[in-house]
Amino acid sequence: MSDTERLTHSSFGALRERLGSIRGIISDMDGVIYHGNRLLPGVPEFVQWLKDTDTSFVFLTNSSERSRRELKDKLSRMGVDVPLDNFYTSALATAGFLQSQKPGGSAYVVGEAGLINALYDAGYTMNDVDPDYVVIGETRSYSFEKIEKAINLVMKGAKLIGTNPDLTGPVENGIIPACGALIQPIALATGVTPYFVGKPNPLMMRQALRRIGCRREETVIIGDRMDTDIIAGLESEITPILVLTGVTAPDTLDTFAYQPHYVIDGVGRIPELCANGEAS
Questions:
Q1: Buried b (16+ CB within 10 A) or exposed e, 215-254
Q2: Per the residue annotation, which of 28, 166, 227, 265 is the catalytic one?
Q3: Contact (CB, 8 A) for 161 and 197
Q4: Which of 167, 196, 225 is the last residue of a domain?
Q5: How many domains, the chain?
Q6: Do 188 and 112 lie in a common domain?
Q7: Boundaries of domain holding 255
Q8: Which residues neighbour 242 within 8 Å (Cβ) at sequence distance 6 or greater?
């Protein structure tokens, strides 16, 4: 066992036993599968293990930038083949939520193509005059003009929606601001508390379980963030496994009032454990 690995509730043998009893895996992507355009160690072996063991799985990302097709193509360029139906994003979850709240509504969107296309597919139109919602997601085209527009639309009555509460996201050379940070100027200026659809919202977790066709008792969630992935698992009663390849560092674990059930270096550890028993 490496110096950075530790288990909070039990041994590696117990983790191996738990993995042997599951039918489904919900896995985050950023910080678990890749950093930006860099595939993380052990990911090809992990994906192959999922296929070889016929484990139902979904790659569940809080990022709203990319469509499922773009995510599939991104992994394909890295040498990993994952079917289109095995991806689910906060953009899709947000579009589904808004469709259920106000079918055929309209939105002013600060975000990228993945979010805009998901809203179009849900029957929404783009509206910068009198929208029902102002929707904020990850974007690299953030500007003062867009913030100003969003603030004034919220002040006129548009509801403020965030695709996810993440403050940062991991990339190859560090971190970048995510939706939770980008929405704050609008929330502070208007005094309106945004509603976040992505993890740890139980809505997204229930959607993930439906997609893999598994009950929570036979599922684990793998993620790199204590404040979204791990708390989402705990509050949804899905066994949480923290990997140390993303945002959360080992020396910050004790600062949280809750703990994951298991902590491992990365997803490559999972097929290794299942193949060889307790690894040294």
A1: ebeebbbbbbbbbbbbbbbbebebbbbbbbbbbbeeeebe
A2: 28
A3: yes
A4: 196
A5: 2
A6: yes
A7: 12-62+200-276
A8: 223, 224, 226, 229, 230, 248, 253, 260, 262, 263, 264
Report long-range pairs for 188-193 (Cβ below 8 Å, ≥24 apart). Answer: 189/147, 189/151, 190/151, 190/154, 190/155, 190/160, 192/154, 192/160, 193/160
**28 a catalytic residue:** yes
- The CATH code of the domain that includes 26 is 3.40.50.1000
Query: What band does 10 get if pLDDT is binned at 50, 70 and 90?
Result: very low
Q: Tokens at residue 205, please? A: 């977790």
Q: Is 6 within the bounds of a domain?
A: no
Stated pTM of the model: 0.88
Tell me the pLDDT tens digit for each residue of 41-59.
999 999 999 999 999 999 9
CB atoms inside a 10 Å sphere around CB 277: 10
pLDDT one-digit tens code per residue, 57-93: 999 999 999 999 999 999 999 999 999 999 999 999 9
CA proximity to 49, closest of 57, 41, 40: 57
Is residue 180 domain-shared with residue 204, that is, in the same domain?
no
- Token pair for residue 28? 């985050």
224 belongs to the catalytic site: no
Write out pLDDT tens, residues 11-41. Answer: 667 788 888 889 999 999 999 999 888 999 9
pLDDT, tens only, 111-167: 999 999 999 999 999 999 999 999 999 999 999 999 999 999 999 999 999 999 999
